[in-house]
Amino acid sequence: MYIGMILIFENRYLIITDANKYWRAIRKPWMVLNYICAVTVGIPFYLMIPEDQESSKSKVFEV
Questions:
Q1: Which InterPro entries does UniProt cross-reference here (predicted)?
Q2: Residue 43 binned pLDDT confidence (cut-offs 50, 70, 90)
Q3: For 24-40, how does the pLDDT look when each residue is reduced to its tens digit (9 = 90+)?
Q4: How large is the average pLDDT for residues 9-21?
Q5: Which helix or strand (DSSP H or E) is residue 33 part of?
Q6: Dihedral sign, CA of 44, 46, 47, 49?
Q7: Separation between Cα atoms, residue 56 and residue 30, nearest integer Å
Q8: Is 4 exposed, middle or buried (0-12, 13-18, 19+ CB in 10 A)?
Q9: How many structural domains are present in the chain?
């Protein structure tokens, strides 16, 4: 969600400052970096899922 908001503001910035050649050169790598960040942000949480979920369920229900 944050990446989408950043890209919307970036698009508005590009529309307002049309003559900025520096930002036009940086824009595509910036967008690729943002999309990569958006995709990879969930990987650590996915890797933290326990493989043996039955034993984890029993530990949770003990409390």
A1: 7TM_GPCR_serpentine_rcpt_Srh
A2: very high
A3: 788 889 889 988 988 89
A4: 79
A5: helix 21-40
A6: positive
A7: 41
A8: exposed
A9: 1
